Structures are given as C-alpha cells and as structure tokens.
C-alpha cells in the first residue's frame, strides 16, 4: 500500500463513526439525557397546547456531530422507545414513529454535512439545512399522518383540532392553515433553539467524545 493510500485511509478512518463499546455507552448516556429533557416541555403561544417544545433533540444532534449520523439515529430511536415504555402511546405508535422521522430529518442532514468538514460554518450550514428539512417533513407528516391519527384516536373530527388552533391563532381556519401557521413555525422555533444550544455547548463538551 502506498504512502498516499495509507494517508487517505487514515483520514477516512478519522471521520468514520466508531460504534464500539465506548460509543454505545455514550449513545446510552445521550439517550438518557434526551428522555429527561423530554419531560420539560414549553408551550408556544401560536400553537395549541398539545404542541410543546422541548430540548430532547440536543443530545441527538450532539450524537450526530460527535459520532456520526448513525449514532444520532440510535439516540433518537432509544429516546422514542424509552418514552414509549415510560408514558405509553395514544396513537398506536404512529405518533412515536412520526416523531422519530421528524427528529431524524433535522439531525441526520446536519450530522452528514458536519461530518464532511468539522468547522463552525459547516455546523451552521448543517443545522440550517436540517431545520428546513424538519419544517417540510414535519408539515407533511403532521398534515397527512399525525393530526388525522390524533383526531381518530381521541374520537373527534379534524375540525375540532383546527378549532383548537383557531382559539390561539385566528389565521388557522383549516388543516392546511393549521400546518402553515402552527406546525411550520413550531418546527422553525424548535430548530433554531436546538441549533443555538448545540452551537453554544458543543465545543465545550466535545473533549468527552475525543473529537476536534
């Protein structure tokens, strides 16, 4: 093997996610932190009360940045499963699956972009990209899956959910405006808040994961 090939191999090894024993322990630690953060929810004034923001995606995004997107996906999965065991489900698991998809749509793209170039600029670009994807996918999942499932699970027409939105935001008059004026802003705020927290703390905690 040539010196150049060895150099490339070593460089590739540095950015490959290592899911050894230490990484699995770190994934478990981040998942535990995520499930704790899920307990602290903050309602937003422009959305119905069942839309509450939490910071549980912070450990997921940290996992993506530190160990690669696959590690972040595992943190997200364990977080959802633990929450399912602890609190149960009112949507036959559909809500949990939707939350998993939406969470991954934010963190995985950010992790992929940051993995290619570990700089602050790359992190910002990754988090901005992830936020935009989370908004788009979140609107689709909520409009076509989550909200109809919630309505069916609680035995209420979809108009009743729309009415809950109208009560806090007069611009919400239909399912489409519910998605536009409640779901989209909710995911935007969540993406910005989570990104800001990770941007402020990541370099300080990164030595734990032995990364740059």
From TrEMBL:
Molecular function in Gene Ontology: riboflavin transmembrane transporter activity
Annotated localization: Cell membrane
Membrane topology category: Multi-pass membrane protein
GO cellular component: plasma membrane
Transmembrane segments: 23-46, 58-85, 97-114, 123-147, 178-202
Keywords: Cell membrane, Membrane, Transmembrane, Transmembrane helix, Transport
Main location: membrane
InterPro entries referenced in this protein's UniProt entry, alphabetically: ECF_trnsprt_substrate-spec, RibU
Similarity-based family: Belongs to the prokaryotic riboflavin transporter (P-RFT) (TC 2.A.87) family.
Function per UniProt: Probably a riboflavin-binding protein that interacts with the energy-coupling factor (ECF) ABC-transporter complex.
Protein name according to UniProt: Riboflavin transporter
Lineage, top ranks: Bacteria, Bacillati, Bacillota, Clostridia, Lachnospirales
């Amino acid at each position: 093997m040539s010196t150049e090939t060895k150099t490339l191999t070593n460089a590739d090894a540095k950015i490959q996610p290592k899911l050894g024993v230490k990484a699995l322990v770190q994934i478990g630690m981040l998942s535990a932190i995520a499930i704790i953060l899920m307990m602290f929810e903050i309602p937003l004034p422009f959305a119905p009360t069942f839309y509450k923001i939490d910071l549980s995606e912070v450990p997921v995004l940290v996992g993506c940045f530190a160990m690669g997107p696959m590690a972040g996906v595992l943190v997200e999965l364990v977080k959802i499963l633990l929450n399912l065991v602890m609190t149960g489900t009112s949507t036959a698991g559909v809500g949990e699956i939707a939350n998993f998809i939406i969470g991954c749509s934010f963190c995985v793209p950010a992790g992929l972009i940051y993995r290619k170039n570990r700089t602050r600029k790359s992190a910002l670009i990754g988090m901005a990209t992830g936020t935009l994807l989370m908004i788009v996918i979140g609107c689709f999942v909520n409009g076509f899956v989550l909200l109809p499932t919630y309505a069916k699970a609680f035995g209420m027409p979809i108009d009743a959910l729309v009415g809950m939105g109208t009560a806090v935001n007069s611009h919400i008059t239909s399912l489409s405006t519910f998605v536009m004026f409640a779901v989209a802003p909710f995911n935007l705020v969540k993406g910005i808040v989570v990104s800001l927290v990770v941007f402020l703390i990541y370099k300080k905690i990164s030595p734990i994961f032995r990364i740059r």
